[in-house]
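User: hey, got a sec? need Transcriptional regulator folded
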Amino acid sequence: MRRPVGEQLREWRERRRLSQLELAIEADVSTRHLSFVETGRSRPSRDMVLHLAERLDVPLRDRNHLLLAAGYAPAFQESPLDSSSLKPVAAAVRQILAGHEPYPAVVVNARSELLDANSAVGLFLRDVSPHLLTPPVNVLRVALHPDGMAPNIVNLPVWRAHLLERLRRQITNSGDPTLHTLLDELSSYPGGEHPDALGPAASVALPLVYRHAGRELTFVSTLAVFGAPRDVTVAELAIEAFYPADNETAAMLRKGVGAE
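Assistant: Yep! Here you go:
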């Protein structure tokens, strides 16, 4: 049974740590009306649902849930990445991935499931157990599982702490119960979270130090998303690109070390 829209809006407000007064001021509505909406004494209009959801930075998928709970049709479509409507997006993704070679890059959804990758990612997957690469592949599981990348991550405790904290932020933002389950699973893996030293690159960006074919490669990564998305799939896409953090790593990758 779908929960009332007012109850869901209140939950989103509390997740964003806003009082009714703060949200009312931000949304330019009366606290009385907002209170009536949250308690179910007043049915919000479609525009009001979207207006409040915008101010609360609710993900597009959940904005559709709010609209359905209020008795309205969803406002945002959800199309497969390989659909005709998303051809420009898919083409842009492929161009970014190809253009980033010889450095690794992946495309994931809101649950960190792998949607696409360039060939350079192979250097991270060389020693990963096949059971972790059966779709849907979760990149966080691949990174931290003892049968995944973890044994080759030289600075595993700090990288593990970074990934777990990033996942916690995703949970706060989305409230997705699947991510709660994933966090519990990943937290149970060995690896620690409190290293004594982060290394010289940490003063600029947290590095990933990865052992590959007897060499230590050092990377920094960036996360990119699409601006002003109007499709749920597009809104949940993220491209993580890994860059060499030192000249030695850059030289090795240009020589094709990932293809060994």
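Quick note: DSSP finds twelve helices and five strands in the chain. Let me know if you need anything else on Transcriptional regulator.
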